[in-house]
What we know:
Layout: E1 10-20, E2 26-37, E3 42-46, H1 53-61, E4 68-77, E5 80-81, H2 87-93, E6 98-101, H3 105-108, H4 115-126, H5 131-144, H6 150-153, H7 163-175, E7 181-185, H8 193-210, E8 213-218, H9 221-227, E9 230-235, E10 238-244, H10 245-250, H11 255-269
Parallel strand pairs: 3-8, 3-9, 6-7, 7-8
Antiparallel strand pairs: 1-2, 1-4, 4-5, 9-10
Helix pairs in contact: 4-5, 4-7, 5-7
Amino acid sequence: MTRTDGAPLLQAENFSGGFAGADxxxxxxxxxxxxxxxxxxxxxxxxxxxxxxxxTALAAMGVLPPGFHHTGGAIRFDGTDLLSLDEASLRKIxxxxxxxxxxxxxxxxxxxxxxxxxxxxxxxxxQKISPKEAxxxxxxxxxxxxxxxxxxxxxxxxxxxSGGMAQRALxxxxxxxxxRLLILDEPTTGLxxxxxxxxIDLIIDIRATxxxxxxxxxxxxxxxxxxxxxxxxxxxxxxxxxDSCEHILTAPSxxxxxxLIANSQLEELS
Length: 270
């Protein structure tokens, strides 16, 4: 049920956890992570590799890696703590209410099934429609994410897709059930610069049309500047700065944020 009390769609409340060390003690990797994502907003979580941003995204999907121990706090979606739900309840939310696009599209797609079959399966898992209807929706979604010849591409396997095309297919899969929250985990990593620009333009266009709440996980502040409303900066498993995108990029208050911006500017000049 959708809440109407003005509460944020996604909220991390002092979320903490870690992995067990050799001595059995929990080694913290997330420490009191807190932020809110308002409905309809484009939110970003930025930080270097190992900052905890992708682990936080997995928590929002209820798919934390084996061995992770939740030690405190909550991840709430529409007011419900996702970590309190059993697997059956989480399956009803994943794909239909919350979808994620991972950075390695080839690894995320199953190599033994056609791309069309995989998109159709996600659709039919959450919607009571016929195979014919699912096929039509999948073809339409591939067309929407600008995959050429969608009818032919439906019959192809992931290895027949380029990296950029595979990322588009994964985006189609994530969007087919019209989720309320779309999480993009480093969606342009490993792609050529021109393909990266195409993917970002596509995401911006989809956002402009659907107004879908979006959470972008990235280390690329250039992408953040183009797309986002608010930004959480993560360092060593904690949020060190949280503010509007404009304020973060023009008047950052934390030394780590200033260093990220300086590094990003150096990359642009190189």
